[in-house]
Specification:
Layout lengths: L6 E2 L10 E2 L16 H55 L11 H11 L3 E8 L2 E7 L5 E7 L2 E6 H62 L1
Antiparallel strand pairs: 1-2, 3-4, 5-6
C-alpha cells in the first residue's frame, strides 16, 4: 500500500502552501489488498477534513475582505473630496481645467469650498449626528481599528488608503483563487474515495464468485 502524500503546490503563488491532493489513477497503486482499504479510506477522509478546514478559513477571510473593501473605497472617496475642497479654498480653480467649463459653476464651487460643510456622520448603526467641517482643512483623522485613530495630511491619507484598497483587492483575488484550488482538491479526494470504495466492492464480489465456484 502507498501512503497518501500531500504534495505542496509551489507553482502558483496563490496556491502555494496548500497541499495538492494525489489522484488515484490506478487503485492498485494505493491498495494491494482488501485489508488495506479501510486504512486508505481513513487517510483520504483525514485529508478531506484538512481541506474543509482550509475552505472554512478562506471563506471567512474572503468575507472579511469583501466587507472591508467598500469601506476603504468610501473613505478614500471622502478624503479625495476633502482634498479637492482644500485645494479650491486655498488656491481656487486650477489653471489646468478646461477652458470651456462653466465659469459661474467654478466660482460657485470655490465659494462653497470656503464655507463650512454640514455633514451627517455615523455614531453607531442607524444613529447619525450632524457636524460642520471647517473650510480649508488640510488633515483628517482615520480610524485604523484596534482602538487606533491617526491624523494624516490629506495627500498622505489618500495615498495610504489607495494602497490599502489595492492591497485588499489583490488579497481578495488571491483568496478566491485559493478557495477554488481547495474546492478542486476536495473534489479530487472525493473521487479518489469513490474509486477505492468501488474497487473494494468489486474485489469482494469477485471473491464471493470465486468461493462459489470452488464450493461447487
Amino acid at each position: 500500500m502507498s501512503d497518501v502524500k500531500e504534495e505542496t503546490d509551489g507553482g502558483d503563488v496563490a496556491t502555494s502552501g496548500i497541499p495538492k491532493a494525489p489522484f488515484v489513477g490506478t487503485v492498485e497503486e494505493f491498495v494491494t489488498s482488501l485489508s488495506e482499504v479501510d486504512k486508505v479510506l481513513t487517510q483520504f477522509q483525514e485529508l478531506i477534513s484538512k481541506y474543509r478546514f482550509m475552505q472554512g478559513s478562506l471563506e471567512k477571510t474572503g468575507d472579511g475582505l469583501a466587507d472591508k473593501i467598500p469601506d476603504i473605497a468610501k473613505t478614500l472617496e471622502t478624503v479625495r473630496f476633502l482634498r479637492r475642497r482644500h485645494e479650491l479654498a486655498s488656491r481656487g480653480v486650477d489653471d489646468e481645467e478646461e477652458e470651456d467649463e462653466d465659469e459661474e459653476g467654478r466660482e460657485a464651487e470655490v465659494e462653497a469650498a470656503k464655507k463650512p460643510l454640514r455633514v451627517h456622520y455615523e455614531l453607531a448603526d442607524t444613529l447619525y449626528a450632524e457636524a460642520d467641517v471647517e473650510a480649508g482643512l488640510s488633515t483628517c483623522c482615520i480610524w485604523l481599528g484596534a482602538n487606533v485613530m491617526l491624523e494624516y495630511p490629506l495627500d498622505e491619507a489618500e495615498e495610504m488608503l489607495a494602497d490599502r484598497l489595492a492591497t485588499a483587492k489583490a488579497s481578495l483575488q488571491t483568496t478566491k483563487a485559493r478557495q477554488e484550488f481547495v474546492r478542486e482538491q476536495i473534489t479530487t479526494m472525493e473521487v479518489n474515495t469513490a474509486r477505492v470504495y468501488n474497487w473494494s466492492v468489486e474485489q469482494r464480489r469477485l471473491q464471493r464468485e470465486q468461493g462459489d465456484v470452488e464450493a461447487k
